[in-house]
Design goal:
Blueprint: H1 2-13, H2 23-39, H3 46-55, H4 66-75, H5 79-93
Helix pairs in contact: 1-2, 1-5, 2-3, 3-5
Length: 94
């Protein structure tokens, strides 16, 4: 249910058809949103939850976060922009 919502909402929320995600990007965003649901009970704000979900994607042996790099290479998003987008998506799918 989250996947179709992400696919249709992302271009609307970001006000550009350029941000139409591929199935891989939708899957990554969906996993992050699902992880945020789990982390929500232990955090005070949605932004904090989104930050934790993104931070968990990086393993200790990796020099860069692969999730952030996926969106940075595609759309030029840095970590903060990804967190902003997750906040927007969270508000819309909840």
């Amino acid at each position: 249910m989250i996947i179709p919502a992400i696919r249709s909402l992302l271009p609307i929320l970001l006000k550009s058809a350029r941000f139409t995600p591929t199935s891989n990007e939708v899957a990554v965003l969906s996993r992050l949103i699902n992880r945020m649901k789990y982390l929500r009970s232990n955090a005070s704000s949605i932004r904090e939850v989104a930050r934790k979900a993104v931070d968990e994607c990086k393993q200790s042996y990796q020099s860069v976060n692969p999730t952030v790099e996926l969106f940075k290479n595609k759309w030029g998003w840095d970590k903060e922009k990804l967190i902003d987008v997750l906040e927007l998506l969270w508000r819309e799918v909840k």
